[in-house]
Write a structure and sequence with these properties.
By secondary structure, the protein is α+β, with helices and mostly antiparallel strands. The protein has 8 helices and 21 strands. Its EC number is 1.14.13.-.
Length: about 375
């Protein structure tokens, strides 16, 4: 599937040429794993991230951890078992034969072994892959390194939130597409009056020309702080003079910061590849604003789910055309953010393969489009 720009401009790399790995996913980055509140002490859950089955758990002492969710003995999914605390240590117990694994992936016990067999077998040689985990701001992050043995060499993502901000709402949807199409679909400004046409957001008559300033941020770019567009009705309920900034960072993290005086509303979206043709969209919302203290949560939840499901339905429908491997185009200026995304991916791969410092390809720019 080729992606070229219109009007004789510099061609955008083909999606297939982008991928060093067959799946086209980026490694050596922190990926969103779960919302912290989804895991109580002694609980575990299953996730599929970058095509890998992952068990995310929390010890009885409250520490989050992650490991490959497959037992090395007979291949059953470990998260269908239980978590056991014995002799002060939390282990994951395989539901098939009771093998137990510590949070670092090492094997703690094989119950079927007799005493002499257990003495002769070196359990230290049996392990499942473990993943570095970081928990902050109500989010659990997992490091996916190209080298399973290498420690993370990047700080985990951190949102620009006031101290003590708590997760207020979470929504999750699955898009039946590769992560690249999910990312550029969500950042695409030109689709809004067509896919999100509703009285409280956009109407056909409200479309007009816009100009937004952008600049680079760490491993990404920002639509710099600005007053929301006059045809964005939903922003008007926040009060006078709201200011918004939208940041995108690799591997697929989009955060919108809205400030109104001393109040704020932050919507964080994690675009997480599950398989080559499936992507999970997780929206996590934080706020401190009087409107949302009195507005029923069901109204905001309905607005969020309406938006993300409209995007889901659009990219899912897009897959019917993409199945014929058409040659696609990215145009100026509406698709420049998509171009930046592909260039950022390539720059990250070059950085990790060469060992040279990462060079952000995004330069300050003012982009114009109609929406």
């Amino acid at each position: 599937m080729a992606l070229d720009t219109a009007q004789g401009r510099e061609p955008t790399p083909r999606v297939s040429d982008e991928a060093v790995d067959d799946d086209g996913f980026l490694r050596d980055l922190w990926y969103f794993g779960a919302v912290a509140s989804e895991l109580k002490p002694g609980e575990q859950l299953h996730r599929l991230i970058l095509g890998e089955p992952v068990l995310i758990g929390r010890t009885h002492d409250g520490e989050a951890f992650a490991m490959r969710d497959i037992c090395p003995h007979r291949g059953i999914i470990l998260s269908t078992g239980r978590m056991v605390k014995k002799d002060g240590e939390t282990t994951v117990e395989c539901p098939y034969h009771g093998w137990r694994f510590r949070k670092d992936g090492s094997c703690a016990a094989i119950p079927s072994l007799t005493a002499d067999q257990a003495e002769a077998m070196d359990l230290a040689k049996i392990r499942v892959r473990s993943y570095p985990v970081h928990e902050s701001q109500g989010l659990i992050w997992i490091w996916f390194g190209a080298d399973p043995e290498a420690a993370p060499d990047l700080d985990p993502p951190r949102l620009d939130l006031p101290e003590g901000a708590r997760v207020k709402m979470v929504e999750r949807e699955v898009f039946n597409c590769h992560v690249d199409h999910a990312v550029i679909g969500l950042m695409d400004p030109a689709h809004i009056p067509y896919i999100h046409r509703q009285w409280w957001w956009r109407t056909e008559k409200s479309v007009h020309e816009k100009a937004k300033k952008f600049g680079p941020v760490e491993r990404g770019f920002s639509m710099l702080p600005h007053r929301p567009s006059s045809n964005s009705f939903a922003y008007k309920i926040l009060g006078a003079k709201p200011e918004t900034e939208i940041r995108f960072q690799l591997p697929g993290l989009r955060t919108e910061y809205i400030k109104v005086g001393n109040s704020f509303f932050t919507g964080f979206t994690a675009v997480t590849p599950t398989t080559a043709d499936s992507t999970t969209i997780t929206i996590v919302v934080y706020w401190k604003h009087p409107v949302f203290e009195i507005l029923p949560n069901a109204i905001l939840r309905k607005a969020i789910t309406t938006f993300v499901r409209q995007d889901r339905d659009a990219v899912n429908a897009q897959q019917k055309g993409l199945a014929f491997d058409p040659k696609l185009m990215l145009i100026h200026d509406a698709d420049v953010q998509a171009k930046w995304y592909y260039k950022l991916k390539q720059a990250w791969r070059t950085h990790r393969q060469s060992g040279q410092p990462f060079v952000n390809p995004v330069k300050p720019a003012t982009l114009r489009w109609r929406s």
